[in-house]
Amino acid sequence: MGRLLITLIIAGVVFACNPSESVQEGAALSTEVSLDLSDSIARKIIDFQDHLSGMEVSNYLKHDDPTYRFLAARAFASIKSSDHLEALITLLDDPSHEVRQATAFALGQIGDTRAEQALLRSFDNVVDSTDDVNTALNGTILEAIGKCGSMTNLDLLSQVSTYKPTDHHLLLGQARAIYRFMQRNIITQQGTAKMVTLLANPDMPIDVRLLAANYLSRAQVNLADHSKLLQLTYSNLMELEIKRFLPYALTKTGERGAIDLLKQSLREDENFILKCNIIKALGAYDFAASRGLIQQMLRQKNIHIASTAAETIIKESDSRYWKSYMTLSLGNYPWQIKTQLLHAVSKFIPAGNAMFLNINQDLIRQRIRQSKSPEEKAAAIEAYAAHPRNYNSVIKYLDEAEEPLVRTAIFQSLADLVRSRNFRKLGKAARKTVVDRIILGLNNGDVAQVTIAANLLSDNQIPWASYGVQPSVELEEVKKKLQLPRDSEAHISVQKALAIHQGSKLDIPQDMLHTHSIDWSVLAPLGDTVLATIQTSRGTIEVELFPKVAPATVANFVDLAKLNYYSGKTFHRVVPGFVIQGGCNRGDGYGSMDYNIRSELNQAYYDGPGKLGMASAGNHTESAQWFITQSATPHLDGRYSLFGEVKYGMNVVNQIEAGDTITSIVIR
Predict the structure, then answer these.
(1) Could you write out the DSSP letters of every residue in 108-175?
(2) With a threshold of 0.90, does the pTM exceed it?
(3) Could you say which residues of the chain have pLDDT below 70?
(4) Which pLDDT does position 656 carry in this prediction?
(5) Domain membership flag for residue 249
(6) Using CA atoms, how far apart are residues 203 and 200, in angstroms rounded to an integer?
(7) What is the extent of the structural domain holding 383?
(8) Residues 475 and 568 in one domain
(9) Are both 98 and 82 inside the same structural domain?
(10) Nearest-CA neighbor of 408 among 444, 362, 365, 372?
């Protein structure tokens, strides 16, 4: 098995890597890794990682103690610096398999193509043995090749067909490698065919099939050649955690039979995540052909299914069907659905229907007045803003809004209007009024409005000069006013926009990167097993935290929980089948503490529902917001700090709606 891969790779690769002196030379080194967070040297290495101090961390790559070598190698997975690449590569020959595995993972995270040949050479050719250690290491090496390797090796790797279902680590490594190549936009027909084969074989491990299904859902590929096999696989699948990823894959076949199969599944299957994914996939593929069935889903008792149907109507429909939405909007629906239907009418109603438009707008204004929550008010004003003629009233609503969630939603609606085709229907003076309000938001110090405005200004297709706006000048001025690290998300958006207009490289200032040291006194009394009970307005969620995997993140979370910071905070973001997210001190997703913590991107995987991760605006910008996954989300692996897992209460996680609250978090 392994010999075939080695033969294929050696045939296609010329090895030119000349690593520095091996760590094994000299005295024999210990091989047992035993991580103790109370150990002063372990803490020192983790603190150096927390400061992103690659130089200091590199000093421990040749330490006699394998635990310290392990920590040093692991640190580079988060630091992602190639400055010490050659020193790190030497640890691929370390006597400790845990050190070798941490090294391989870190080299993948760094993503430097110079590591590819060293990784290939280190692929252990003892895979026919029952040694789980060797195969786990080789699986990690395969994944790392997917993060830094060439298309040639993607094809070679995809040709390996000798792995048996019992070769779990190797199969998982192969699938992860193909997936990581895809994340780098390196996709081949052979790689896609291999993923179809892995998915379709019921004897393959579930996590391998799940990864293949996710690949086929996300990759920009034509699956027409695999249509019959994918349909057969979908029809026979009993594992919902795999099946829920296949709707998008089936639409990529472009075949009527696949679409009919999805429609049948939408009618008959009960799983809400699967239904939501089918609705979105059918809507994106051919909304008109599935409109009637999608409209039926508006009556589903599960609010996530009904909301997904309503959101799909807004996203994928057009003006041909506005009368249907007008009729539906008069029905008895929960506010989330009714408001979205009113939104659809406001967006799609064509000119020449003044009477119906006035009825629609009156109904929306009534909902704005009678709204019982910030979420409901924000949705109603967004619906009102969907018609361009209302721009002046929308600006007035913005100026009067008190809740950050409402202000942010309104401001985002104005930005969306500027991007839309409907913006052209307004007169020049009206367009200037809207743009002026966007620029006012850019300069008013509100982190959400600054971020949204900067993102809009990054669009150089908009004729800014015709509105008297010089994006570079405006952005340079606002950059001076931002306070770091509090405004880090806004600062990053401003920097990205400037990079586009000035043709420069994105520059993140160093004072954003370390503003909050690890409080080891928070972790000291907790031990290795740390549980957090998250009490919500829907029920209890119990999670286990991973202090050895993400000590800085766990310490921060525990500290905030013990300070009762999370009490009363909302789940401001709910994406059915993806995540629920909470912990924002503004309630709109733009809130932050006055500090950031660093990303801890260790070898932990979002390979199922219930994973607890830190939300961020980019690596090393985390603060207080976190999310819980509702499905496997492998595209987050190595990008978002994973620091815990739900042990009890996934039913509660799946019931959470936007606006639900966190009552308390108790650590024990």
Answers:
(1) HHHT-GGGHHHHHHH--S-TTS--HHHHHHHHHHHHHHHHH--HHHHHHHHH-----TT-HHHHHHHH
(2) yes
(3) 1-29, 124-130, 507-513
(4) 99
(5) no
(6) 9
(7) 318-413
(8) no
(9) yes
(10) 444
